[in-house]
Amino acid sequence: MSSTETKPSPEEEDQLFRLLRQLDTAPGASQRATASAIGISLGRLNALLRAAVDAGLITISERSGPDKRQRFAYSLTARGASEKVRLTDIFLNRKLAEYNALHAELTGTTSGMVPLKHRTNLMEQNLAPIPELYVSHESAQKLKVEAADLTSHDLSPRQICDLELLMNGGFNPLKGFLTEEDYDGVVENMRLADGSLWPMPITLDVSEDFAQSIELGQDIALRDQEGVILATMTVTDRWEPNKAREAEKVFGADDDAHPAVNYLHNQAGKIYLGGPVVGIQQPVHYDFRGRRDTPNELRAYFRKLGWRKVVAFQTRNPLHRAHQELTFRAAKEAQANLLIHPVVGMTKPGDVDHFTRVRCYEAVLDKYPASTTSMSLLNLAMRMAGPREAVWHGLIRANHGCTHFIVGRDHAGPGKNSAGDDFYGPYDAQDLFRANQSEIGCEMVDFKHMVYVQERAQYEPNDEIKDKDDVTILNISGTELRRRLSEGLEIPEWFSFPEVVTELRKTKPPRAKQGFTVFFTGFSGSGKSTIANALMVKLMEQGGRPVTLLDGDIVRKNLSSELGFSKEHRDLNIRRIGYVASEITKNGGIAICAPIAPYATTRRAVREDIEAFGAFVEVHVATSIEECERRDRKGLYKLAREGKIKEFTGISDPYDVPVSPELSVETENVDVDNCAHQVLLKLESMGLVKA
């Protein structure tokens, strides 16, 4: 606001709020009916309409229809819908202040109600509806038409998850992607600019080129990956964040071993945009539609059943018997009903896919009392941020109407850092949650580490077993479970339900029947292609699975012929190879890749893509650059030395030597057959092929 502008009075703000609300809820009403509904004269209505049109809050169009007296139609723009949300907060807080003043005058005491920051409902009202960012159906149809003229941003899968929870109230009190001021507060001390607790940056990251094409104050259309519009956003902020600072503050370390830090540095856009969002329609999910509920749908469900206390169980893994016992105990301790609330958005790379997990959940749901337990799916993109993630999960569950939340040991921990240590302490998440519990609005129920006591044939909390020296304690770790599944070994019934094991075995057949990828990397001329060809013949000789060779030169000719040799294009070429290999692996085949693949971050991204479906075996062909240059069968090193080939790996461009490949082979003074045999022996030791 410039120094010459005057701040609108409360009465003017109220009138504008009532006008925008009326046009949104009754867009077809006459001017006389609109003025009557707002409680102002026709003259004042016309003045308001003119001001709103000038401010870009509403549009005016010729009306077509039988009512000749009503010549014009008015509808909210995206900016008008956003302004309505802002004015609603101001209106509600003003009315609450008036109520408190009247309460004090009549009774001599305060009402005990606190201001509703961003309309956040008090958690004792956990069954009442919470605010959403969607406009009415009529306004949404108009905004879809208007959005055709807006600059569009195609959202990434993670951004779609974030946007859905912004629009349906799961991220309440947020009204859009964080502004720079809110972002700084969240990163530094888990607080929005107004002081509200919020631990996780929810930002719209974009490329530099896209950011430069946007002016502040401009509206943009937010679309899914098929181009379907989901929302509009008024861009109020644009900045380049300090990502190293964000990594240190939010995730505890600027370490690429953390999946969210790796995403931050290697996948997220360089520039952040912030501003309010106007929801047009929710993303379409074709899977498990009957299991997906918005916060208000869950609150209505709890209200209908009379559930006053609800304890939520967060999970991204299949449910086994220990989890069942844990949830039973948590519900009993809280004297609450149970909501099994698994995440089906983005979880940790390598996790069991959500289709398999939901089938596992449904297979054991009847093990719970139907009258006290329900299940709903949460389309959340996890960050694996440990303590902050636990607080975040608590706020999200409070928005969904839950009063209690189970916080686990090392809750949402990502595993080991680059030094081989855990990123977070085992109880850091519980400590941070407990410190902020009153503001979260959701009480914590401590996770109990459950183990099976063989002599008593039951699960018990490990720290409550008094006679540990006299009993047999059994437990199977996640790593051990994956090994047993991969090798086709028995999964004891005391550990898991037969129905769950059956579902897991469908997705995880024995390793010798799974698809996998062998990914050779090394300098040009190191012998990758030669060894890869020999390995392909040996695997085809064994039979049983189709084998596909994705050699660097062959892919360049058939899949990436339009690409050059810049870093960006080389990365894109490797990602294309990784995508094809992941599809081959997913469908039970064997992919053999033999590109140079000089950059560790790109190789890691390909590994994550493939390990979602099967094994990834990285083979470093460790031929020295001197030997490769001596061989120089294609004459490329000579041209690179003469400066005729720019950005040549090993000469004018770096090569990141693999730190911990599954296998490293030397080719100097070793014949090709021996090198291929080394790879085959490694595959046998990993159980991927039979000896």
From TrEMBL:
ATP binds at G522, F523, S524, G525, S526, G527, K528, S529. It comes from Aliiroseovarius pelagivivens. Signal peptide: none annotated. Residues 292-506 form the Sulphate adenylyltransferase catalytic domain. Belongs to the APS kinase family. The lineage of its organism: Bacteria, Pseudomonadati, Pseudomonadota, Alphaproteobacteria, Rhodobacterales. This is Adenylyl-sulfate kinase. It comes from the Bacteria. CDD domains: APSK (cd02027), ATPS (cd00517).
